[in-house]
Design a protein that fits this description.
Shape: globular
Oligomer: single chain
Number of strands: 14
Order of helices and strands: HEEEHEHEHEEEEHEEEEHE
Radius of gyration: 21 Å
Largest sheet: 4 strands, antiparallel
Distance between the termini: 33 Å
Structural class: alpha+beta
Strand order of the largest sheet: 1-5-3-2
Length: about 250
C-alpha cells in the first residue's frame, strides 16, 4: 500500500480539459467511468472536496470557490485498481495534481473543534446485517424513504448530514465503530409537514401516524442514534487559487 501511495502521488491525468461554465444553471453532475472523469458545471470547491476526500464543511476558502463553475473532462493514464482504497488514492492524487497545475491551488491542513452529531449504536444494538463489499448505491425518495445498498456507516453519516429534518444543521460523524458494508432501509416523516390544504394564510400541519420522525426512525428501524457532541474536525484551508484555470 505504501508503494502504491508513492506511485499514486506521481500520477497525472493523461489528458485533461478544464473550461469555465457560464450557463448559470443550478444543476451539476460528476462521474467516473471507463477510465474517465467527467464533471459538468461544478464549482472549484466541489472539485477540491472530491480531490482531497473531504466534506464540504471541512473546506475553508473564499466565497467565489462556490460561485465559479467549470466543466472538466479527464482521461486516466490507465485503468485504476478495482480495490476501493487504491482506486480512491489514485483518483485523489490525479485530481490534486490537476488542481495545482491548472488553478495553482495551495492548501494546508488544520483542526477545529466543532459541534457535531455523532452517529452511534443504540442500546439494543443494530437491526441490520453486514453484506459483502460490492457496488454501493443510495436512493432517497421524497426525502422520507431511504434505501442504501452496500453502504458504509461513513457514507450513511454523509447522507444524514444532508438532511434538513434534523433539529440542528450540524456535521454528522460516524462514531459507530462499524467497519463493514450494509443494506439499510429507513422511512420517516419530517417533524412538521405542511398539507396541501390551507386556510387563508394559516398552513394546516398534518401528522403521518404511520411513520416516526428521523431521529426516532433511526433508533426504531436501524438501532442507531444521533448524539450532539463536540469533536475535533480536520479542515482544509485554501491559501491560494486562481479564478481562471490555465489553458488546456
Amino acid at each position: 500500500m505504501a508503494v502504491f501511495a508513492c506511485t499514486a502521488l506521481c500520477q497525472e491525468f493523461e489528458v485533461v480539459s478544464v473550461k469555465p461554465n457560464k450557463s448559470m444553471s443550478n444543476s451539476s453532475s460528476s462521474r467516473t467511468n471507463q477510465g474517465r472523469l467527467t464533471a459538468t458545471n461544478v464549482s472549484l470547491r466541489s472539485l477540491i472536496v472530491r480531490a482531497y476526500g473531504m466534506k464540504d464543511y471541512q473546506v475553508e476558502g473564499p466565497d467565489w470557490l462556490r460561485s465559479e463553475r467549470f466543466d472538466v473532462a479527464a482521461k486516466f493514464p490507465e485503468a485504476l485498481p478495482t480495490d476501493r482504497e487504491k482506486y480512491n488514492a489514485g483518483l485523489h492524487a490525479m485530481m490534486q495534481n490537476m488542481l495545482v497545475d491548472r488553478f495553482k491551488l495551495a492548501v494546508h491542513r488544520d483542526k477545529k473543534t466543532l459541534s457535531v452529531y455523532g452517529l452511534t449504536v443504540a442500546k439494543g444494538g443494530i437491526k441490520f446485517k453486514e453484506v459483502p463489499d460490492s457496488d454501493s448505491h443510495n436512493e432517497n425518495s421524497n426525502n422520507t424513504h431511504y434505501v442504501g445498498t452496500c453502504v458504509s456507516m461513513e457514507a450513511f453519516a454523509e447522507f444524514l448530514a444532508l438532511r434538513r429534518d434534523l433539529p440542528q444543521d450540524l456535521p454528522v460523524l460516524d462514531m459507530t465503530g462499524l467497519k463493514g458494508f450494509y443494506n439499510l432501509t429507513l422511512d420517516w416523516v419530517p417533524e412538521l409537514r405542511q398539507s396541501v390544504e390551507s386556510k387563508g394564510d394559516v398552513s394546516v400541519i398534518a401528522d403521518n401516524p404511520s411513520w416516526p420522525t428521523l431521529l426516532v426512525a433511526l433508533q426504531e428501524q436501524l438501532g442507531l442514534k444521533l448524539e450532539t457532541r463536540r469533536a475535533p474536525i480536520e479542515i482544509l484551508v485554501v491559501d491560494h487559487a486562481e479564478r481562471v484555470p490555465s489553458e488546456n
